[in-house]
Amino acid sequence: MPSSRFALFSICPICVSCVVVVSPWLCSRVIVSCVDPKARAAAAKRPNPALRKQQSSAFYAVSTFDQSSLEKMIDGGWELASAKDEAGKTVLHRAAQVGNAPAVASLLKSGSSVDALTQWKETPLHMACRNNKVAVAKALVEAGASTTLKTYGGDTALEIAQKYKFKDLAA
Questions:
Q1: How far apart are CA 171 and CA 162, in angstroms?
Q2: Rounded to whole angstroms, how far apart are CA atoms 42 and 46?
């Protein structure tokens, strides 16, 4: 079950006997376990939400460290590698920004680009360094993130860490 404390529980609208989680941020129902195989098959055929909805839902899951919901999104075939906000920030950027290391690992494993660029030419590594998220920065570098890419302002991730005086990252 999703770990979000905002989840509400209801009866499965498919088979009317199972419990479902109603997540306000998803604006949809996630079936926890439907015992009726025909009902489960019918639910599995439903299309995924629009890309903009996928992006906002994934940002919320990453920001609240709701790894269970994020994994369900990935397993459900959501296009998280291409979901971006208005500034071009991907779900991986957001995970790096908030320091959600498990989400970073899952997103990289599912195909998110380690060097995706925002409109300001910031990578997830820049986001991690700007917010002093040491574990995430190390994971991104180990995954092959470029340490030489520069932002629109001309800074590498290391230079950002030095500007903000983050000694653990700037060392």
A1: 9
A2: 7
